[in-house]
Amino acid sequence: MLLYYFEMTLSEEDYIKAIYHLSQIDSKSVATNAIAEQMKTKPSSVTDMVKKLSEKSLVKYKKYQGVSLSEKGRLVALSIIRKHRLWEVFLVDKLNFSWDEVHEVAEQLEHIKSDALIDKLDAHLGFPKVDPHGDPIPNKEGFFTKSVKKLISELPILSEGVCVGVNDSSVTFLKFLDKNNIALGDTFKILDREEFDGSVTISTRAGSIRISEQIASNLFLEIVDEE
Amino acid sequence: MLLYYFEMTLSEEDYIKAIYHLSQIDSKSVATNAIAEQMKTKPSSVTDMVKKLSEKSLVKYKKYQGVSLSEKGRLVALSIIRKHRLWEVFLVDKLNFSWDEVHEVAEQLEHIKSDALIDKLDAHLGFPKVDPHGDPIPNKEGFFTKSVKKLISELPILSEGVCVGVNDSSVTFLKFLDKNNIALGDTFKILDREEFDGSVTISTRAGSIRISEQIASNLFLEIVDEE
DNA sequence: AAATAAATTTAGACAAAGCTAAAAAATTGT
DNA sequence: ACAATTTTTTAGCTTTGTCTAAATTTATTT
């Protein structure tokens, strides 16, 4: 990622990331109030910070017109997201955290400044393409393949992918998965779908099983697609 | 390490660490000027911070009389040092940094706040006792075995230990080590020492070799002693 | 097209952590 | 013992990122 040769404070980095995420949702320019809510701060604080980021050409800002990232700001955001997601992979794959425990710690680790560290971490992890939630990891240049994380219920027959998450993390659902030998990281192939009730037959390591529509709409697969 | 239930800023943690290190050297109470030099700041700033740390009972402070850590402060210092050294082991053992490149990054990583993270990192690394420089890693309760990192030239015959560092990191010296199959992490035993010129015979994986006094006074061994 | 409501910005303050310059205490030298 | 020097502290100012309250602009309603 074309390193940024200027110092950024922790707070600035958090704002850039928040603006990036909000503009993913809306694709328009982002409202002051929306940023304030995301950052758990007040709109007046946002205005101050946005002016500062604008001075540094990280965002495009016109009074009362909302804010959007500049190309420079976008690359900064992607560099932070890259770090965040690589650390999440580390926490899950190497330190045995479960995929739903890692966000908070990764929020801290993403601010560590060292290009060498991230390069070596990336290599150590085997250059992963997605984080434990199935979200794509940008490469050094800020490129990444669009997320193709989808619910089993939304995928066509013969799709193949890695199970990367659940919608419903209730205890009963997680117990069901356990009983049926379904774990995050497993590779599934969708063999068939019943018109009648939406139930789906999938092949797993342990053989093929039939799951109800309700289950299928709670399991996310990360599609291992062309690249 | 008896977690500290109060928030500490990055700066406060750095001061506590600096005071700890300075009181290791001097064992007396630490001077304002000494802290200022260590922290690359001005004495007046130190006075301000020391007052703040005193309010929080992390240090004992009387005007004009210098400062020393309270028991609480000492435990905080050891917790930070524990984190610093564990991260150094990670960087060297897992990410293939060389032992002289890791300090700066570990300075950042040591401030990450998560007990679970440090516990799991410790386990992942196999509960190491010393960092890549041979300095001891305090355990969770703040206990550690005193460092027994010594130059080969200062050790008695039949001592055995792991090579953990060099005094002189010049290219020529490092090349010499390479040529003689000496690497950090190797275990050596001191077999004999010549009265005449101080040269030493040591046994290595590759057999026993004779090294000059000059070499012996540039190689640190970490003694694997009783504990 | 006003009037009202909502969103945004400005102005002025505050806490953290630093600085400079000046004052006060401690130490040293003779 | 006391003058000179060094160390430490105080006082007042700066910057960063936040806040509240008031003012202003934009959006919505009738």
What is the secondary structure topology, with strand pairs?
The structure is a homodimer of 227-residue chains.
Chain A: H1 10-26, H2 32-39, H3 43-55, E1 59-61, E2 67-69, H4 71-94, H5 103-109, H6 115-124, E3 149-151, E4 160-166, H7 171-179, E5 187-193, E6 200-204, E7 207-211, H8 213-216, E8 219-223
Antiparallel strand pairs in A: 1-2, 3-8, 4-5, 4-8, 5-6, 6-7
Helix pairs in contact in A: 1-2, 1-4, 2-3, 4-5
Chain A binds a DNA duplex (30 and 30 nucleotides) through helix 3.
Characterization of the model:
2 copies of one chain form a homodimer. Helices cover 41% and strands 17% of the residues of chain A. With 227 residues, the first copy, chain A, is α+β, with helices and mostly antiparallel strands. A 6-stranded antiparallel sheet of chain A has the order 3-8-4-5-6-7. A two-stranded antiparallel ribbon of chain A has the order 1-2. In chain A, strand 5 and strand 6 (200-204) form a beta hairpin. In chain A, helix 1 (10-26) crosses helix 2 and helix 4 packs across helix 5. The relative contact order of chain A is 0.11. The mean pLDDT of chain A is 87. Chain A binds chain B through residues 91, 94-97, 101, 104-105, 108-109, 112-114, 116-117, 120-121, 124, and chain B through 91, 94-97, 101, 104-105, 108-109, 112-114, 116-117, 120-121, 124. Chain A binds a DNA duplex (30 and 30 nucleotides) through residues 9, 11, 31-33, 41-49, 52, 63-64.
